[in-house]
Specification:
The chain is mainly α. It has a domain of about 45 residues. The protein contains three helices and no strands. The longest helix is centred in the last third of the chain and has 26 residues. It starts with a helix and ends in a 6-residue tail after the last helix.
Amino acid sequence: MKAFLDKHVERFISRKFLAWGTATSLALYGVVTSEDWVAVTLVYIGSQALVDLAVAWKSGQFLGK
């Protein structure tokens, strides 16, 4: 059952986004502090930026090709 859910969760949203959404929900309910939410958000944005940079570099767009 877990493998089935993982397969379908990956298809629709990334796990990083799922972690960010969970942190946001917990922050709205007061379970997570605002400082923790900021940390999760920074990690999410930073990791997405690294992925975008790696894709651009691999495709040659980063070097202006």
